[in-house]
Amino acid sequence: MDYAIRNAFFTFIQVCYTQLMLKEKLKHHHIILASQSPRRQAFFKDLDVAFEIRLKPVEEEYPARLTHFEISNYLAQLKALPFKNELQPNDILITSDTIVWHQDKALGKPRNEDEAFSILKSLSNATHEVITSVCFTTPQYEKTLHDITKVTFKRLTDEEIEYYISTCEPFDKAGAYGIQDWIGQIGVTKIEGSYFNVMGLPVHLVYKTLNTIADL
Questions:
Q1: pLDDT at residue 20, rounded to an integer
Q2: How much is the pTM?
Q3: Which residues of the chain fall short of a pLDDT of 70?
Q4: Is 140 exposed, middle or buried (0-12, 13-18, 19+ CB in 10 A)?
Q5: In Å, what is the CA distance from 51 to each residue of 11, 96, 113?
Q6: Residue 177 within a domain
Q7: Enzyme catalytic residues
Q8: What local confidence, expressed as pLDDT, does residue 122 receive?
Q9: How far apart, in Å, do the first and last CA atoms of the chain sit?
């Protein structure tokens, strides 16, 4: 067997075995994902663990004194509050929030096309940070973690920004863009950190934390 093929085969087997281990560890737990993000839902499907999607409305406001990852940590924890009185002993609730931090301020989701254009214009030819926080809550345990990825854009033309806004409708994305979208493909020149974190979930940290909780 060719060395590269053999290597790929054993890597595949190792990944499958690791997933089976986590799935086995969590068989007596019930994971609740409180997120309507299709990207986060897809990540959990890829982890091959059973989960339920459960949503509750939350006013995503935070104290003005908070900065940087304090904001995303606070919002991830805030999203867990409506669930706390209904969690069962084997439940693991997962809530999360993503912000873009640029020029000493948080950039959330744009409310309209003008705001989306202004945000993307500010990210053009610059480096910003994408911060995702994840809160894990059980009746006995709460842990909040965050991950930071630095993303650099080339100089975006007005035409490129307008085309992206008109074709991809980035109004459900912090910082007005999805790195997996067209603008990420043609505009991102450098990433320092986890790509998946930019998409909305630091999967490596989620996997590690679920293993930790399962071992408690």
A1: 61
A2: 0.87
A3: 1-20
A4: exposed
A5: 26, 15, 35
A6: yes
A7: 97
A8: 97
A9: 42
